[in-house]
């Protein structure tokens, strides 16, 4: 039974990361629509889908109680509001990056996100770096610096994606709300602004009517934005409860790897030797970061930072 639960967890987590990885394919279909309008629809329809999921799972009552509990505590209320702002920013920049032919840069953001998480934990949670975590961060910094010199500008989209998702995760850790109910509350908070924006967009003389006709594929794609947001999250929630955090750490690179391959081979985005070198620094940093707590890694590196014993010093 336990083995079966573990297998379900692995399959669900892989499913979540596969869907997140191919998400650029979906947003590319909406390329003629502005990133702001796509984002607004994503927020509104995500709320609809999340409410349906909570209703099916019979969690509406518990969700309502959690909402009341959060907003009767000032710190929790501010936290969930700020979290909703960061995830909305993350969604917008990702949609914009994909539709601006920056899928490779978007993948970079999600590659460096785990290392940003370590940095944020040190700054805000007073967690200490291990030597290997520090080395990982230095390698990632070198990679980003190489890419910055190559582009001539900072890869802002990648950095905003990494920091916004990192801050979102940090705040969710502090507020301590479940993934499904948390997303429902966050989209609920953003929905009034999204609806106001959509009303404003539809009133513009230049609006080309991307949403409204039930015969339009674009209309259904915009409605489907809710499902493509909620389904991977549901799979991730199922997986995260059943498998270890270290395994989640390994699987999380499936998403950005798929994005990188899509950017290079499907969308023919430029990927030079210099960019490859920058990614290699980041990949090595991630490999060290991900494996540094494993028993095998500790055995292989245990003598690298240790001083000679006093006995050996005397013998010398």
TrEMBL record:
Listed Pfam families: EamA
Domain EamA: 8-148, 157-290
Bilayer topology: Multi-pass membrane protein
Keyword Transmembrane: yes
Keywords: Cell membrane, Membrane, Transmembrane, Transmembrane helix, Transport
Residues passing through the membrane, by range: 7-27, 39-56, 77-96, 108-125, 132-150, 156-171, 178-200, 220-240, 247-267, 273-292
Places the protein is found: Cell membrane
Tagged with keyword Membrane: yes
PANTHER family per UniProt: ACYL-MALONYL CONDENSING ENZYME-RELATED, SOLUTE CARRIER FAMILY 35 MEMBER G2-RELATED
Family of the protein in this entry: Belongs to the EamA transporter family.
Family annotation (NCBIfam families): rarD (TIGR00688)
Protein name in the entry: EamA family transporter RarD
Species the sequence originates in: Halalkalibacter kiskunsagensis
């Amino acid at each position: 039974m336990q083995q079966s639960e573990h297998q379900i967890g692995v399959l669900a987590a892989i499913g979540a990361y596969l869907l997140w990885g191919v998400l650029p394919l979906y947003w590319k279909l909406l390329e003629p629509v502005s990133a702001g309008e796509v984002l607004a629809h994503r927020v509104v329809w995500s709320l609809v889908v999340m409410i349906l999921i909570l209703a099916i799972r019979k969690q509406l009552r518990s969700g309502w109680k959690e909402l009341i509990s959060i907003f009767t505590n000032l710190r929790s209320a501010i936290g969930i509001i700020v979290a909703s702002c960061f995830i909305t920013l993350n969604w917008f920049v990702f949609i914009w990056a994909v539709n601006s032919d920056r899928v490779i840069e978007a993948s970079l953001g999600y590659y460096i996100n785990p290392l940003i998480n370590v940095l944020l934990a040190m700054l805000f949670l007073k967690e200490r770096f291990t030597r290997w975590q520090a080395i990982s961060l230095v390698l990632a910094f070198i990679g980003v610096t190489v890419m910055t010199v190559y582009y001539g500008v900072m890869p802002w989209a990648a950095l905003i994606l990494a920091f916004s998702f990192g801050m979102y995760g940090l705040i969710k850790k502090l507020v301590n709300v479940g993934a499904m109910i948390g997303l429902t509350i966050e989209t609920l908070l953003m929905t009034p602004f999204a609806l106001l924006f959509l009303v404003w967009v539809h009133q513009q003389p230049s609006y080309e009517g991307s949403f409204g006709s039930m015969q339009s594929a674009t209309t259904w794609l915009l409605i489907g934005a809710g499902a493509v947001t909620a389904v991977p999250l549901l799979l991730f929630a199922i997986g995260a409860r059943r498998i270890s955090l270290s395994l989640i750490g390994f699987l999380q690179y499936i998403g950005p790897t798929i994005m990188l391959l899509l950017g290079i081979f499907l969308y023919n985005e430029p990927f030079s030797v210099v960019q490859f070198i920058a990614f290699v620094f980041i990949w090595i940093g991630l490999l060290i970061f991900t494996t540094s707590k494993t028993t095998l890694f500790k055995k292989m590196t245990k003598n690298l930072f240790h001083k000679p014993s006093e006995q050996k010093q005397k013998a010398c």
